[in-house]
Amino acid sequence: MKKWITMVSLAMFTGLLSCNNDAKLNGIITIESEFETTVEDWQSGFSGYSSSTPDSTLQLTLDRARLPGILDSTRYGIKAESYNRGDVMFMFLKKRVSGLRPATTYLVTFDMTIGTQYADNVTGASSGNDTYIKAGASVNEPTIKPEGGKYTISINKGNLSGGSSEMAVMGNITNGTNNNQYRLVTRSNRDQPITVTADANGELWLCIGTDSGFKGLTTLFYDRIKAELTLQN
User: Fold this and answer.
1) pLDDT tens for residues 15-41?
2) Phi, psi of 138 (to 5 degrees)
3) CB–CB of 22/72 below 8 Å?
4) For FRET with 72, which of 36, 159, 169, 204 sits at 20 to 30 Å CA-CA?
């Protein structure tokens, strides 16, 4: 029986992020990861692909690695790579946040820098045009389970270019040039923050990922992830 991927752990344990007193006082909590020494307790997973697809054909990678030389090979990021052999491939990172006010609502925004090699002038289907960056938050942990012949994620991520109440779409992964070479680009959801309420223990989950309809190999690098949780009055 095929062993299916429930989660590719990037850490030996799930880290809890405790918020300092100053952050609690001004109502804004900032979480920033640059991955220079560790994965900073982000964990990874994949969903959307058929449960009958051999794992070995999917080239699944979500782990800390050096950035491509054209960017800066002395620096590190999270390399995200997968081969979509079905309809949609969602590869994601998740992180638990603790120390929040219990049962209290926050607005969550993300600013990210990614390394991507996909030109934005390609006509027809392409990896850059058909792969969408998403980010969000949920009181529920994003987990994977087999359902209807494929692996599904427990949160509502939306589908491809569509978002949801738990995840915002921040554009695709094109690099803003006519050249297929790596370039650092930024993505943000400040115009569409996610509203989420922490649980009774003052915890919630952050989630970022790419939703891809491209039938092929997609590779990119997360250079920096910054999330801000603002206490909603």
Assistant:
1) 444 444 444 546 899 999 999 999 999
2) -150, 150
3) no
4) 169
